[in-house]
Amino acid sequence: MKAITFQGIKCVQLSEVPEPEIISKKDAIVKIERAAICGSDMHVYHGRETGIDPGTIMGHEFTGTVVDTGVEVSKFKVGDRVLSPFTVNCGECHFCEIGLTARCVKSQLYGWKESGVGLEGVHAEYLRVPMADATLVHLPDDFSWEQGNLLADIASTGYFGAELAELKSKDTCVVIGCGPVGIMAIKAAKYFGCKEIVAVDGIDFRLEFAEQNGAIPVNYLRQNIVEKILERTNRIGADSVIEAVGSKSSMKTAFDILRPGGILASVGVQAFDQLPFSPSDMYDKNIILKAGRCSSRFYAEKLIPLVQNGEIQLTDVISHTFDLKDGVEAYRFFDEEKDKCLKVLLRP
Ligand SMILES: [Zn+2]
Ligand SMILES: [Zn+2]
Fold this sequence. Notes:
Elements lengths: L1 E7 L2 E6 L11 E10 L1 H7 L15 E9 L11 E3 L3 E2 L5 H4 L10 E2 L2 E3 L2 E3 L6 E4 L2 H4 L1 E2 L6 H7 L2 H11 L7 E5 L3 H12 L4 E6 L2 H9 L3 E4 L5 H8 L5 E6 L4 H10 E9 L12 H7 L2 E4 L4 H13 L11 E4 L3 H9 L8 E4 L1
Parallel strand pairs: 12-13, 12-15, 13-14, 15-16, 16-17, 18-19
Antiparallel strand pairs: 1-2, 3-4, 3-10, 3-19, 4-5, 5-11, 6-7, 8-9
Helix pairs in contact: 5-6, 5-11
The site of one zinc ion has 9 residues, from helix 2.
């Protein structure tokens, strides 16, 4: 089958690889219908996250059709339409029980193989899904492949950020980073009824899109964010910040614009090891810091009814769709943010 594989920094290629097979009785094989390129795939692409084996199939966001099941899979059968969170989970451990599926004791991320251990990615024609009964979610008949795809990570992570931020109706919330996750966080903040949502980014077309979704745009390259937020909040500061970038400077900005007692909800994949503020800075400002990987198995189910009721619209973030065979070009296109590119899907 065809797959987009990691070969080295800024080097992915269209490869011919063996089709996956059932290894465990709990596995399912899924034919990929839509896959997406995520901002965190670009961490791998650029070598900001290292250790992945060359030859590993890229990607972790997909929807598809079940084409084979192990003998212990009881909730899914051949022909079922499914979505999947970007990490697999067992459904039995303490963390699965409390909805923290991202921290399942058997959690693994698609598209991450290190020293031969781990899971292949989803930028391929077929995929093996371990622990299928616990991991997969039935895609409702009225859901498109595209809608389901966004629940795999992007929409779930944005909503998770808004939930971490504990938004209330009188709040001013700032979303730093207006990529797909940031846009979804803005949509969720709107859904939670947040009074004022400020969107921060350095790219104008993203800010325009954030504005269309009800946020007040601030371009940090042209405006002083701290001053702007203080102006809008009677010099108090923001009640919460959803940080959807994962950089040291955005964490520093988040800290600087929060009011005392404010919440910093960080959902960007962090690729640095020291915070740009100290424990005493946090103490002196009573800052609440929350961070982590979204348990998208838990949130996907939670979001399905909200999408069905039309309370959250998802697919407008999808800007481009490429055929899988043109996946290498799709990576380049996404990386260079050509043609107001926001979210790229791959179609086998
Ligand atoms: Zn992702
Ligand atoms: Zn578990």
